[in-house]
Amino acid sequence: MLRAAQVYPAVWHPCLSFAAVHKITTAFQSDASSDQSKSTYAFALKQYNSSIRFLLRMMPHATPTPEDQEMVLLVCLLFTGLSSIQRDTSQAVAHSSNGIQLFYRWRYWDQASPSGQRANCILPSGAIVSLITHIEASFRNRALTVSPWRGMHIHEGCLGTNLPTKAFNSAEEAFSDLEPMLTGIVEIMQHIGLESEATQPHPSRDGRSLFRPRFAAWRTKFDLLHQSGKLQPPDSGIMLLLKALSIGVDVFLQVDFNNLETSFDKFHSSFECLVALMEQLFTEDAKRCGDQASNFSELSFSLSACGLLTLVATNCRDGKLRRQAIALLRRFPRCGTTWDPRVSIRVAETIMELEEQGCHPGNEDMNCACIPGDVICADHRVSLWSVELLTYQDARILMRTVQDVREGRREREQ
Questions:
Q1: Domain boundaries, position 343
Q2: Which helix (H) or strand (E) holds 399?
Q3: How far apart are CA 352 and CA 358, in angstroms?
C-alpha cells in the first residue's frame, strides 16, 4: 500500500487520512473533543476529499487502464478501513461492496501477465486478488448479503487452471493462493445451509469439485514450504494460522451436504485440533504483544482466527468443545477484518443457547435425543440463520431450527 501511495495521489491522500483517524482513535481516545483531536480530524477529512477529487477526474474514462483499476481497488480498501476504524458499519459495507463489484466487473484476475505483474502496475495482481477476496470472505463469514451479482462461478477465474506443485516461496504467497479458495468455499456453504428431509430440498450444484484438486495442490506446496528451510521465526504465527485454515477448508470440502445436522460429528477430531492450534497461536501472540495481546483490534487486513473458532462454536455438537472455542474467541485479539469480533461471539453464543434450550427443564421433548451439556439432537440444530449488523458492535440474529423449518414456524430473533 505504501508503494502504491508513492505513485497514486488518490491512494496517498487516504493513507494520510487513515493515519490521522488512527491517531484520533488511539492517542486522543480519552479526549476526543480536544482542539488537537478536532484539527487532526479536519486534516483527515481534507485528505479524504482530496482522494475523492482524484477519483472523479478519472471517471470520464470509458475503459479504465490497468493502473486506474489498481488505484481504485486500493482506494476502496482504504475507504473500507477508514470506515471500520471509525466504527461506521454502513459506510464500511458500502465501500467494500463497491470494490467487490468493480473487481468482478473488470475480471481483475484475468488481466495478469504470466509473471503475475500487470503492465504498468505497482503490485502483483495476486496481492489485490487476495485482499479483495479476504474482504469478501469477512462478509460471507457473517451470512451477510452484500452484492447480488455474485454466483459460484465467479471464483473459477480467481482460482486459475494451473496446478503446480513446487513449494511456495513464502507464507505470504501461500496465503494469497488460499484466500480465493477460502472465500469461494464459504460462499458455497452459505448457499447450502442446514436442511432436514421435511424441507424437501432441491438438488444443489456442489461446486466443491472445483476446489478439491486446487486445494490438494495447495496443501502439497504448503507441506514443501514447511520442509524447504525458507521460513524464518516471524513466520511461525502465519504458518500456524494457515495450517488451521487448511483444516477448516478440508472440513468444508468433505462434509456431507445431505445431512448437515449431524455430519459435522465425524470432524470432531479436526475441531479439537483447530482449538488446540488457536490456543497455541494465542500463546505466541501473548508473548509477542504482552499486555496488548488481549485487546481487540479495530481493523485487520490479515488472516483472522475468528472464522475458525466460530466454525467450531456453531457446527460442533459437543457442548464442552463449543464453550472452549467461544472462551478463546473472547480472548483472541485478531479481529475479523472489518467487524468487531464480539459480533462473532454473540452469534456463536446465541446459536448454542437456542440449540440447548431443548435440554432445559420444562422444555423436554419426548422425541428429543439431546444429552444436556454433551450433544444436540438433529431437530434442535439451528438450520438457517442470518445476521444484520445494526452498529459496529451490535447485530440482529435471525434463526430457525430444523424443527422450526419442518413445522413452518417463523424465525426467532435475538
A1: 124-198+205-356
A2: strand 395-401
A3: 11
Q: What is the CA radius of gyration of the chain?
A: 22
Is residue 374, in this structure, part of any structural domain at all? Answer: no
Cβ neighbours of 360 (radius 10 Å): 11
Same domain, 91 and 189: no
Contact 16, 40 (CB under 8 A): no
pLDDT digits (tens, 9 = 90+) for 41-56: 899 899 999 999 988 8
Is the overall model pTM greater than 0.70, yes or no? yes
Longest dimension (CA), the chain: 69
Task: Specify if 368 maps to a domain.
Answer: no
Cell of 127: 496481492
- Res. 286: pLDDT tops 60: yes
Separation between Cα atoms, residue 222 and residue 372, nearest integer Å: 41
366 Cβ partners below 8 Å, 6+ apart? none
Q: Cell numbers at residue 55, please? A: 477519483
- 285 in the same domain as 155: yes
Residue 43's Cβ-count burial label (10 Å; 0-12, 13-18, 19+) is middle
d(Cα 391, Cα 89) in Å, to the nearest integer?
A: 6
- 236 and 319 part of one domain: yes
